[in-house]
Structure formats: C-alpha cells, structure tokens
Amino acid sequence: xxxxxxxxxxxxxxxxxxxxxxxxxxxxxxxxxxxxxxxxxxxxxxxxxxxxxxxxxxxxxxxxxxxxxxxxxxxxxxxxxxxxxxxxxxxxxxxxxxxxxxxxxxxxxxxxxxxxxxxxxxxxxxxxxxxxxxxxxxxxxxxxxxxxxxxxxxxxxxxxxxxxxxxxxxxxxxxxxxxxxxxxxxxxxxxxxxxxxxxxxxxxxxxxxxxxxxxxxxxxxxxxxxxxxxxxxxxxxxxxxxxxxxxxxxxxxxxxxxxxxxxxxxxxxxxxxxxxxxxxxxxxxxxxxxxxxxxxxxxxxxxxxxxxxxxxxxxxxxxxxxxxxxxxxxxxxxxxxxxxxxxxxxxxxxxxxxxxxxxxxxxxxxxxxxxxxxxxxxxxxxxxxxxxxxxxxxxxxxxxxxxxxxxxxxxxxxxxxxxxxxxxxxxxxxxxxxxxxxxxxxxxxxxxxxxxxxxxxxxx
Length: 460
Ligand SMILES: *[C@@H]1O[C@H](CO)[C@@H](O)[C@H](O)[C@H]1NC(C)=O
Ligand SMILES: *[C@@H]1O[C@H](CO)[C@@H](O)[C@H](O)[C@H]1NC(C)=O
Ligand SMILES: *[C@@H]1O[C@H](CO)[C@@H](O)[C@H](O)[C@H]1NC(C)=O
Ligand SMILES: *[C@@H]1O[C@H](CO)[C@@H](O)[C@H](O)[C@H]1NC(C)=O
Ligand SMILES: *[C@@H]1O[C@H](CO)[C@@H](O)[C@H](O)[C@H]1NC(C)=O
Ligand SMILES: *[C@@H]1O[C@H](CO)[C@@H](O)[C@H](O)[C@H]1NC(C)=O
Ligand SMILES: *[C@@H]1O[C@H](CO)[C@@H](O)[C@H](O)[C@H]1NC(C)=O
Ligand SMILES: *[C@@H]1O[C@H](CO)[C@@H](O)[C@H](O)[C@H]1NC(C)=O
Ligand SMILES: *[C@@H]1O[C@H](CO)[C@@H](O)[C@H](O)[C@H]1NC(C)=O
What we know:
Number of helices: 14
Order of helices and strands: HHHHHHEHHEEEHHHHHH
Bound molecules: 2-acetamido-2-deoxy-beta-D-glucopyranose
Oligomer: single chain
Strand order of the largest sheet: 1-4
C-alpha cells in the first residue's frame, strides 16, 4: 500500500481536529528542508494519481494524446528523487523512461514517431540525460540512460536543415506536419542544451562542436533571429517561408530556460569561460525580469497566457521545467546562485498557497494569486512538484555529475544510428495509411502546439 507523505497524514489529522480549517493547504516553511520535502511529497503524490502506466494492461510511460508530457512527468520524478532521496516512485520512473525509448533507443517509438516534433523527442532525451547526470542506475536489460540521450542527439543532428536559413532544426520532422516550415527556439535550444550536457558528461568533442554550431546559428543575425544577443530577447520561432527574416516573438519561459541552461553547462564544462558567463547572465537577467519580476512579488508567472487564463497543458508545464533548470544553473554557475534562489523561494511560497484546492492540496496554475485558482490537472501538479524540489538546491544538493565525477551510465556514441525511419527531411516515403493516421494525430497534437507556438508567426 502506498501512502501520501507523512506531512499530508499529519495535516489530515489536524484538519479533523480543527473542523473549521478553511481548506487543506501546503504549509511551507521555505527555510526548513523537511517542510520543503513534505510539500514536494504532497504535490508528487497528487501528480502520480494521473499516472496509470504501471497498472495491468496499461503501457508504461504512455500518454497517447500528449506523448511529450511523459518526459516532463519523469523529469519531475527524477528531480524529486534526487533532491529528496525518496525512492517511492523509482520503479515507475525506471520502467516508463525505458519503455518509451523505442526499438532503436532514441525516443522515436513506432506508436508515436510519425507525428512527433523535434522538441517532443528532445525532451525525452533531456530526461534520459538527467537520469545519467543524477546517477539514476542504468537498467540491466535495456538501453543505458546516456545512450538514450546520445540516440536522440544522433538522430536529430541528421535533421539539421540547410535548405533555408543557413541551418537550424525545423520544429517538425515530416513534411506533412503543420509547422514543418518553421524553425523554433525550443527545438534548437533543446538540442543545444542536450549537446552541451553530453559534452560536459562525456568530454567527447562532437557534442561541443554541435553545441557551438547550434548556438552560433541561433545568435547570428545572418542566419536566425531567434536570439538577439544584445538584448537577450528569445523569440519563439521563425518562418522558413520568408527565409527566417521575421520573429514570432511570443514570450515563453522555456525558450529562455533551454538556452540559458545549455550555456550554464558549457560555462561549467569550460571551467568558467567568460563568453558563456555573459550568455548565462544575459539570459538569466531577461528570464527573471520577464517571468519572475520583483514587481510580481518575485513569483514565477507564464506571462503570455496566465493573465488571460488561456494556458494550455503544455504551457502550464513551462514554469516547472524552468524552475528545475534554474536550480541546476545555480549549481553549475555558482555566481548566479544568489539571484536565483530568492526567486525560487518566493515562487514556491506562492505555489504552496495555490495548492489549497478541493480540500486535498490540489494545486492551481496561477501561483501569483497566492490562492487556489480552480484549475486542476497533471500539469499543475508537475510544475508545483518542480518548484518545491528546486528549492532543495539550498540544502547541500549534489550537482549533476559527469563520467569523471561518478557518472557510470554506459556510453554508446553510435546510439540511434540504426534508426533509418526518421532521418530524411526531404524525401520521406509515407504510405496513405500512415498519412491518414498521422494526420489525425497531428490534428490532435497541433491543437495544443500550434496555439502555443505558431499563431503569432503564421498569423503574421
Ligand atoms: C482531489 O479532489 C479532486 C476533486 O474531487 C479530485 O479530482 C482529485 O483527484 C483529488 N486529488 C487527490 C490527490 O486525491
Ligand atoms: C502504480 O503507481 C501508483 C502511484 O505511485 C500507485 O499508487 C499504485 O499502487 C501503483 N500500482 C501498481 C499496480 O503498482
Ligand atoms: C505501442 O502500442 C502497443 C499496442 O498497444 C503496446 O503493446 C506497446 O507497449 C506500445 N509501445 C510503446 C513504446 O508505447
Ligand atoms: C552506477 O552508479 C549507481 C549510482 O551510484 C549505482 O547504483 C550502480 O550500481 C552503478 N552501476 C555500475 C554498473 O557500477
Ligand atoms: C553575438 O552574436 C554575434 C554573431 O551574430 C557574435 O559575433 C558575438 O560574439 C555574439 N556576442 C555574444 C555576447 O554572444
Ligand atoms: C577544466 O579543468 C580540469 C581540471 O583542472 C581539466 O582537466 C580540464 O581539461 C579543463 N577543461 C577545459 C575545457 O579547460
Ligand atoms: C537585468 O539587467 C538590467 C539592466 O542592467 C537591470 O536593471 C536589472 O535589474 C537586471 N535584472 C535582474 C533580475 O538582475
Ligand atoms: C561547476 O559546477 C560545480 C558543481 O556545482 C561547481 O563546484 C564548480 O565550481 C563549477 N565550475 C565553475 C567554473 O564554476
Ligand atoms: C544496431 O544493429 C546492430 C546489428 O543488428 C546491433 O548489433 C546493435 O545492437 C544495434 N544497436 C542499437 C543501438 O540498437
């Protein structure tokens, strides 16, 4: 039998004593390690009520209509285990993260591969990379975590597209997908980050070469307008149909977080290069000023969708992903610690006040309201879990390791190279049957993603 954290049980008892208690809350004392762990435990418990992949007849790690979100859930579980030491969910984590890797060990599982975007696959690669860096033990009878990250890297660099804009990753993989003619920040920033992390973990030159290549493409005005490296504004996307001359400048926190964190890994890997420090500082400054400003009480807000209450499930996850990445950045670039931690603290305190829903500590979307806002879902629970666990960075947290500092995940530099189904961007052969199936799935998928990324660009 699985029980919620002790904190929840205790609060349950308190509630029965103080009958007029308004709603069950997460009582977070941000200076107290155990209090933060209890808050995380409560949020993760509720998060896992949305996971049925461990039940008989269910598929581990599968979220059919929103496949990429599984990677966000497993990232939250990895951070939770790493920062709290609680192994309660490690079996679900290990089995699900392995199951979805597909036959070729590159997170292109055949059930989903025909409608994936580069960003979807990338997030699973980042989850596997995180497992390696946090010393989550490899499985004995499957792909190692490191090889899975390498598999994603190897399949993605083959899709580097030079037909327009002098390079860059397209948003989508196949020509029949809506968004195929766009190059977006999360696909490029995500692969940049994955490359940077592989470079630091393995020390292999190819990963550093690619990290630099993707970065240079992203900042160079001649090729891409995605990052303005004078203002550090990060645009969401650019359109190949006009040669990447226009910016879809909708502001999303994860675009900043993806690039900032990659730069943080490269700063650390290069033993403190001033070039990467300037990038980290510039992107961090813009991230904090835009999404976690003092004028907002230092509370993380996804500013493009929260004020008007139009955040979709993807967008609700961004704050959580970025909170975790901020905690890693604070460790990898120690000079950023004092700017980051206070913002994580004020955000977590507000998030805790939002977790007062339904008399069972359900968390809402808008932390800055400092009360429950009526929203409920897996994504809300993932982001709340992430902001709580990120605060444990203040308590002697262990930084991501490398192959020379304790990481033992098995390397396979050729991982993913057996996969021939997903590498061509120009001449993919698709049967009518595949096309119909993928088209339907793409419609489902695009409802979420295009509204997220595309409209500002597609609509002008
Ligand atoms: C909390 O209550 C809501 C409303 O009844 C329910 O949907 C949700 O599953 C509950 N959460 C937990 C963790 O039990
Ligand atoms: C599946 O995981 C959930 C959440 O951790 C747990 O409550 C449940 O007992 C597990 N079911 C099985 C069959 O292991
Ligand atoms: C793909 O679907 C089949 C049939 O439902 C299932 O048995 C298998 O586990 C799924 N694989 C993945 C990676 O989800
Ligand atoms: C790798 O390290 C992890 C974490 O320290 C450990 O649990 C695991 O047994 C190690 N694996 C091997 C093959 O040494
Ligand atoms: C900004 O990008 C340009 C290339 O467009 C490069 O020459 C310059 O070094 C970059 N500066 C920083 C601070 O990254
Ligand atoms: C960083 O420092 C370590 C330890 O001194 C050294 O082995 C390594 O080569 C250095 N890395 C770089 C990129 O300078
Ligand atoms: C970011 O930089 C601007 C200009 O230097 C400065 O006014 C602002 O306080 C900085 N913000 C943060 C969060 O450091
Ligand atoms: C790299 O990260 C480690 C772990 O947090 C830290 O001890 C070290 O100081 C960092 N390196 C640099 C150059 O800041
Ligand atoms: C690639 O295929 C070869 C030959 O079938 C096989 O030995 C190898 O294990 C495969 N590698 C991966 C990563 O699947």
